[in-house]
């Protein structure tokens, strides 16, 4: 399965491309913003597509023409303003969904925020609420499609080494999870068709990742 990783130059994206390229059943195509970012992926024999998420739907669709799945791992980051949150986390996600449809790609995996319910927007600190709102509406847009989607809601992200173990479910206790383990969860979802049409929260926990995903 050839997978377009949107946001490949991010920390989750880099882990994911590495894991995919080490998996005999999978192949990565890294979507990056700048040519200078390509070295990491070339070293891993991964194809690259240079597209900025703020470009139009057609540009993203062209990158998705030859793939079997799309994974959206992009994010504007904590240091950007509300404008970038709208343009990347919301509009970038929606354009990627529409691009997948246009390219005829059915499988779509979305990396969301831990809790994107309407209540979570109201309860979030003012500095974080725009991000939760962006993720809320991007998730809603994806649910309304006929794509074979999976929505993953990770807990607080860390750069700790992955443990390979998680707690996963519709409603799990809030906690943290390493970016490396999030990437491993994505890989497991690409391999498991039973995750289609599902969304779930993940934090580092006690169950091996593949086992936790199979039991969803």
Automatic annotation (TrEMBL):
Q: What is this protein called?
A: Sugar epimerase YhfK
Name the domain of life.
Bacteria
Q: Which InterPro entries does the entry mention?
A: NAD(P)-bd_dom, NAD(P)-bd_dom_sf
User: What organism, scientifically named, is this protein from?
Assistant: Oceanobacillus picturae
Cited SUPFAM superfamilies: NAD(P)-binding Rossmann-fold domains
**Any idea where the NAD(P)-binding domain is?**
7-192
């Amino acid at each position: 399965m050839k997978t377009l990783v949107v946001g490949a130059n991010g920390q989750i994206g880099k882990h994911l491309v590495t894991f995919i390229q080490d998996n005999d059943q999978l192949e990565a195509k890294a979507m990056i913003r700048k040519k200078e970012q390509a070295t990491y992926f070339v070293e891993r024999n991964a194809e690259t597509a240079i597209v900025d998420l703020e470009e139009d739907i057609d540009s993203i669709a062209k990158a998705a023409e030859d793939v079997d799945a799309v994974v959206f791992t992009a994010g504007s980051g904590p240091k950007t303003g509300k404008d970038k949150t709208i343009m990347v986390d919301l509009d970038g996600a929606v354009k990627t969904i529409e691009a997948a449809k246009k390219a005829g790609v059915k499988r779509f995996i979305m990396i969301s925020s831990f809790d994107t319910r309407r209540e979570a927007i109201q309860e979030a600190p003012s500095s974080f609420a725009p991000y939760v709102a962006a993720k809320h509406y991007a998730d809603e847009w994806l649910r309304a499609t006929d794509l074979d989607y999976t929505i993953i809601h990770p807990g607080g992200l860390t750069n700790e080494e992955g443990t390979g173990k998680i707690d996963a479910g519709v409603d799990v206790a809030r906690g943290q999870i390493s970016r490396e383990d999030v990437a491993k969860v994505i890989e497991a979802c690409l391999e498991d068709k039973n995750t289609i049409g599902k969304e779930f929260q993940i934090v580092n926990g006690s169950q091996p990742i593949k086992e936790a995903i199979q039991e969803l």
